[in-house]
Amino acid sequence: MIKIKKKNYMKAVILAAGKGSRLYPVTHHVPKPLLPIAGKPTLEHALDQMKQMNIEEVCIVRGQDHDEMESFIGYGDKYNLKISYAVQREQKGLAHALLSAKEFCGEDKFVLYLGDAIYNTSLQKYAQEFLKGNFDNLNLVKPVDNPEQYGVAILEGNKIVQLEEKPKEPKSNMAMAGIYWFSSKIWDAIHAIEPSARGEYEITDAIQYLIDSNHDVRAGIYENTWFDTGTLPSLLEANSHLLNGRNIVGKGSSVHAELGENVYIGNNVQISCKYISNAIILDSSHIDVNGDIIDSALGGDITSPKSISGELLYNAAVLKEKSAARS
């Protein structure tokens, strides 16, 4: 029986092939897309967004060494989605990663979602805007105070006429916010571009090619909160924002500490410290700290004679004194 696709059918590609080097050593042991944020793996937040956009088919682009991620997420039964996988064998940029999913996408429209992004509201209205407008590309953009630190979109109305990458003198304050909707015209654009100065195939270069080729490229202006979670501060900020002062302690965990706010402690954790606040503790960790744990993400077996603050640690015996503790 041939399945007839719905009108305005759209697929999703989630990029999750990055090594998470800015979160070493934790991501040596847990793939970045599986790091917990407010009690849920980062990648599951992305899958929630796909469901809110009424997407049924998702391709996750993973790295060669991410078998654990595929085993954990599976093929979609527990999410009521149909999930498949593609492998990016070399780290050559977002556009190169997207090419890994070309066979999955075919000629269908799709949304490209960066797997470490967290948005605090549904993106469904932007998906509907893309489908109803029959655009070749719609990009989420967000007004920011420091556009020189981002890729920036220059607009005429809601039409993007130029992109600039971290401009010294920005012509716009509209930062590219990490999610893109495309028609099949993106494939020719990716094949047409050359590697950037850093040797990668940039998705922004492919979008600029669409613009230069007179294709219809639009902006969806996002006014809410967005986190990229690729660094310890952004990971903890996203966790804090979603917890909103709450704490979560997983099943089978034993906590001997005064709990502050915005603490996630995974399952089967044994932790002893004086005080813990704004922290993520991974599953099955054993933590013994003679002091406070603040602004940190910890996993494995960790012992410390002093407080831990602002640290990413996995299987560590901390010997040097840590001066930062509660003020």
Tags for this model:
327 residues, alpha/beta, Spore Coat Polysaccharide Biosynthesis Protein SpsA, Chain A, 2 domains, eight-stranded parallel sheet, seven-stranded mixed sheet, 8 helices, 20% helix
Task: Write structural notes for this entry.
The chain has 327 residues and is α/β, with parallel strands linked by helices. It folds into two domains: 10-227, Spore Coat Polysaccharide Biosynthesis Protein SpsA, Chain A; 245-317. It has helices spanning 42-52, 67-73, 94-99, 102-105, 124-133, 186-192, 203-212, 232-243, and strands at 10-16, 36-37, 40-41, 57-62, 82-87, 109-114, 118-119, 137-143, 151-156, 159-165, 174-182, 217-221, 226-227, 247-249, 254-259, 263-265, 270-281, 286-289, 292-304, 308-309, 312-317. The strands form five sheets. Strands 14, 15, 16, 17, 18, 19, 20 and 21 form an eight-stranded parallel beta sheet that branches. A seven-stranded mixed beta sheet has the order 5-4-1-6-11-8-12. A two-stranded antiparallel ribbon has the order 2-3. Helix 6 (186-192) crosses helix 7 (203-212). The relative contact order is 0.13.
Shape assignment: globular
Q: Approximately what portion of the residues adopt beta-strand conformation?
A: 35-45%
Helix/strand order, N-terminal first: EEEHEHEHHEEHEEEEHHEEHEEEEEEEE
CATH fold annotation of the largest domain:
Spore Coat Polysaccharide Biosynthesis Protein SpsA, Chain A
Helix content: 10-25%
Low-confidence stretches: none
Q: What is the CATH top level name of the largest domain?
A: Alpha Beta
Largest beta-sheet details:
8 strands, parallel
Proper CATH architecture of the largest domain: Alpha-Beta Complex
Total helices: the number is: 8
Computed over alpha carbons, the radius of gyration is: 21 Å
CATH superfamily membership of the largest domain, which one? Answer: Spore Coat Polysaccharide Biosynthesis Protein SpsA, Chain A
Summed up, the domain count is 2
Count of strand segments: 21
User: Helix/strand-derived class?
Assistant: alpha/beta
